[in-house]
Design goal:
Blueprint lengths: L10 E2 L9 E2 L7 E2 L2 E2 H5 L1 E4 H6 L20 H19 L3 E5 H4 L6 H22 L2 E6 L18 H21 L3 E4 L5 E2 L7 H22 L4 E4 L9 E2 L4 H10 L6 E6 H6 L4 H10 L3 E5 L18 H13 L8 E3 L10 H27 L2 H9 L6 H7 L5 H10 L10 H14 L1
Parallel strand pairs: 1-2, 5-6, 5-14, 6-7, 7-8, 8-10, 10-12, 12-13, 13-14
Antiparallel strand pairs: 3-4, 9-11
Length: 437
């Protein structure tokens, strides 16, 4: 049976097409900056927002019309697998991502839960083999169930910590079974509400211990996926331990984990941290830790994680600029950690949303490649910092300057002259590139 009978195979038709079920900018095999768009973008469908989200919000019940919702339990889980692969194939998306509890329901015991997971993993493996779709990453949901009320790797309850470890162990085994290219750690409740009842040092030490155990077990079973950590500043936990890229990198450096992890960065999480997405990408890139992207956007008028599909061309262009400067995403990709709006409840809206996001990133890729080829920002930056390539500036950069030497120079240099940063001009140039592509 078809879960999306009104949706045809999605093809590229170009910017002039009026077909609502066609790509206007995403050409999978088009060569841009030496690689195909498909190779650059490595798109993935997020199982949770696409297959399990029902459109509920804090003030209303679900609105989504999903034909698979007539099933329950394991029958529902199996139907979702069929629907997922129909959608993924029709969109020509090469990858997908999931949490363990997205694909299979929990049982009364951990053993029963694992049996449910094994059944669905076997079914997913069959669909992967028949379609050629791959698993970008999987992860463990250690935030929804009430047992994680005080956290998972940072809980105060050793029994919960042991359960979390067992869940990660199973997740690594599932990732190996399905050939996952990455494994993500997202600490949905790894943080605290108040220091009055928190041993922060113990919690952080225990989180690092859990990561080390995961590394050891992955090595033991021969699972060579890239490990990723996804920063998030708040919601639900007020003080999240993985607040942003810089905080997470400091954690990895402090505990000697930097060589085994990279970052999976989400646009809306950057917004919540008070950063732009390109800022987070640049910080990770500077440290060699830019691993993968969760593509979405937030509503700047709302203070929570709205997970909207990315359609802001400025954001997608500057994102792809950082990705190209990084030499690509390696094993990572661009996962649409995004959900349709509550009022977009028909099945076809899932396709409209993904098409919009894929086209936005394809457009961003094309514009970013031209900006880099023409050295638009590089030339401006070189001019702006020219004073550090000669004279006293060169001595500073080469480490030859001392405070005394700089004082002597400053005492003799009474006429300091600054040059304009030309921000508005650069933004106008960016507009020109966006409009001319």
């Amino acid at each position: 049976m078809s879960y999306f009978p009104n949706v045809p195979q999605i093809e590229y038709e170009g910017a002039r097409s009026n077909n609502e079920f066609a790509f206007k900018h995403y050409e999978p095999e088009r060569i841009v900056a030496g690689k195909t768009m498909k190779e650059h973008l490595r798109f993935a469908v997020a199982y949770w927002h696409t297959l399990t989200t029902g459109g509920a919000d804090p003030f209303g019940t679900g609105t989504a019309i999903r034909s698979w919702d007539r099933f329950t339990g394991m029958d529902l889980a199996k139907a979702r697998v069929e629907a997922a692969f129909e959608l993924i194939v029709k969109l020509k998306v090469p990858y997908f991502c999931f949490h363990d509890r997205d694909i299979a329901p929990e049982g009364d015991t951990l053993r029963e839960t694992n049996r449910n997971l094994d059944t669905i993993v076997a079914l997913i493996k069959e669909h992967m083999k028949s379609t050629g779709v791959k698993l970008l990453w999987n992860t463990a949901n250690m935030f929804t169930h009430p047992r994680f009320v005080h956290g998972a790797g940072t809980t105060n309850n050793a029994d919960v910590y042991a359960y979390a470890a067992a869940q990660i162990k199973k997740g690594l085994e599932v990732g190996k079974e399905l050939g996952a290219e990455n494994y993500v750690f997202w600490g949905g409740r790894e943080g605290y509400e108040t220091l009055l009842n928190t041993d922060m040092a113990l919690e952080l030490d225990n989180l690092a211990r859990l990561y080390r155990m995961a590394i050891d077990y992955a090595d033991e079973i021969g699972f060579d996926a890239q490990f990723l950590i996804e920063p998030k500043p708040k919601e639900p936990t007020k003080h999240q331990y993985d607040f942003d890229a810089a905080t997470t990198i400091a954690f990895l450096q402090h505990y000697g984990l930097k060589d085994r992890f990279k970052l999976n960065l989400e646009a809306n999480h950057a917004t919540l941290a008070g950063h732009t997405f390109e800022h987070e990408l640049r910080v990770a890139r500077m440290h060699g830790l830019l691993g993968s992207l969760d593509a979405n956007q937030g509503d700047m008028l709302l203070g929570w994680d709205t997970d909207e599909f990315p359609t802001d061309l400025y954001a997608t262009t500057l994102t792809m600029y950082e990705v190209l400067q990084n030499g690509g995403l390696g094993k990572g990709g661009i996962n649409f950690d995004a959900k349709v709006r509550r009022a977009s409840f028909e099945p076809e809206d899932l396709f409209h949303a993904h098409i919009a996001g894929m086209d936005a990133y394809a457009k961003g890729l094309k514009v970013a490649a031209r900006l880099i080829e023409d050295r638009v920002f590089e030339n401006a930056i070189e001019r702006r910092y020219a004073s550090f390539r000669e004279g006293i500036g060169k001595e500073i950069v080469e480490g030859k300057a001392t405070l005394a030497a700089l004082e002597r120079y400053a005492l003799q240099n009474d006429a300091i002259v600054n040059a304009s940063g030309r921000q508005e001009r650069l933004k106008a140039v960016l507009n020109d590139y966006l409009l001319s592509e």
